[in-house]
Automatic annotation (TrEMBL):
Enzyme Commission identifier(s): 3.6.3.27
InterPro entries assigned: AAA+_ATPase, ABC_transporter-like_ATP-bd, ABC_transporter-like_CS, P-loop_NTPase, PstB-like
Cell membrane among keywords: yes
PROSITE patterns: ABC_TRANSPORTER_1, ABC_TRANSPORTER_2
Occurrences of domain ABC transporter (ranges): 24-266
Single GO molecular function: phosphate transmembrane transporter activity
Pfam families given in the database record: ABC_tran
Keyword Hydrolase listed: yes
Name of protein: Phosphate ABC transporter, ATP-binding protein
Length: 271
C-alpha cells in the first residue's frame, strides 16, 4: 500500500476518489447547556466547500459551541443537549448512530492553545497514521514530511525531528498541531482561535498557512480578531446571543452588512 492509498484508507475516501471537500450544512441547530438554555438558537447555514468561513461575534455568543458541534465535541460536555441537524454530504452527523471516531478523522480540530503531545516532533505527526494502521517506517516518514511541509514547518524542524515537540516555540507548536491534524487527512478543518495565544509574526504565519490550506480543505475558523476574519476568510458568520445574525461574503459583512447588529459589532460599537 503506498502513501496515498494509506491516506485514502484512513480518511474513508474511495480509492482513486477525488479530494474535493464535502458539503456541510447546518439546519435548525439549537444547543442548551444546563446553565444556558440558549447557547445556540436555531442556527442554519451552508458552509461552502473549499472555502474559509469565519465565525465572529462577542464573547459568549456561541462561536466555539457551534464549532464543537461539527465534530461532536459537545458530546463530551455533560448535560449539553442539541436539536437540529448538520448534514455532511447529506448525512446527519448529529444522528445517534454516527461513528464519531471516523467523523473526527474527517473533521479535524485545532484549539486555541497549542497542545502537542509530550513526545518528539516526529511522533506527534506519526501518531494518528500509526493508530490508523500504518506501520511501515518509510510510509510514516513520507506522511510526516508531507504533513510538516503542508503546515509550513518542515524547513524549521527537518534536522530535529526526534527532539521533543515541547522545545518548539508556541507558533511552531501550533503549526505542528496543524501538521498532526493534517496527517490523518481530514476533509474539513475546524480552527478555534488558532492564533490567539501567538505573537504577531507567528499569527501572520498561521494566517498564511490557513490561506494555503484552503486549497485542500474546507476551513471554519472562530476568531475574535476581525482583521483576521477580514484577511483570511471568504465567508463570515456573525453571531450574537446564540443566534446567527448574518452570514455573507466577508467583504459584504465588513463593508456593507445588512443588519444593524453586525454593523455595530464590526464598527466597534459593542462587543
Ligand atoms: N462547557 C460548557 N458548559 C456550560 N456552559 C458552557 C460551556 N461552554 C460554553 N458555555 C456557555 O455557552 C455560551 C456560549 O459559549 P461559547 O464558548 O460557545 O461562546 P464563544 O462565542 O466561543 O465565547 P468566547 O469568544 O468568549 O470564547 C456561554 O454562555 C458559555 O458560558
Amino acid at each position: 500500500m503506498d502513501k496515498r492509498d494509506a491516506l485514502i484508507r484512513l480518511s474513508g475516501l474511495k480509492a482513486g476518489g477525488d479530494r474535493s471537500p464535502p458539503d456541510l450544512e447546518v439546519r435548525g441547530l439549537s444547543l442548551a447547556y444546563p446553565d444556558n438554555e440558549n447557547a445556540l438558537r436555531e442556527i442554519s447555514l451552508a458552509i461552502p466547500a473549499g472555502k474559509i468561513t469565519s465565525v465572529i461575534g462577542p464573547s459568549g455568543c456561541g462561536k466555539s459551541t457551534l464549532l464543537r458541534c461539527f465534530n461532536r465535541m459537545n458530546d463530551l460536555i455533560e448535560g449539553a443537549e442539541y436539536t437540529g441537524s448538520i448534514l455532511l454530504e447529506g448525512q446527519n452527523i448529529l444522528a445517534r448512530d454516527t461513528d464519531v471516531t471516523l467523523l473526527r478523522r474527517r473533521i479535524g480540530m485545532v484549539f486555541q492553545r497549542p497542545n502537542p503531545f509530550p513526545k518528539s516532533i516526529y511522533e506527534n505527526v506519526a501518531y494518528g497514521p500509526r493508530i490508523g494502521g500504518i506501520r511501515r517506517k518509510r510510509q510514516l516518514d513520507a506522511i510526516v514530511e508531507h504533513s510538516l511541509r503542508s503546515a509550513a514547518l518542515w524547513d524549521e524542524v527537518a534536522d530535529r525531528l526526534y527532539e521533543s515537540a515541547l522545545t518548539l516555540s508556541l507558533g511552531q507548536q501550533q503549526r505542528l498541531v496543524i501538521a498532526r491534524t493534517i496527517a490523518i487527512e481530514p476533509e474539513i478543518l475546524l480552527l478555534d482561535e488558532p492564533a490567539s495565544s501567538l505573537d504577531p509574526i507567528s499569527t501572520l504565519r498561521i494566517e498564511e498557512l490557513i490561506y494555503e490550506l484552503k486549497h485542500s480543505y474546507t476551513i471554519i475558523i472562530v476568531t475574535h480578531n476581525m482583521q483576521q476574519a477580514a484577511r483570511v476568510s471568504d465567508m463570515t458568520a456573525f453571531m450574537h446571543l446564540g443566534r446567527l445574525v448574518e452570514f455573507d461574503r466577508t467583504d459584504t459583512i465588513f463593508t456593507n452588512p445588512s443588519r444593524r447588529e453586525t454593523e455595530d459589532y464590526i464598527t466597534g460599537r459593542y462587543g
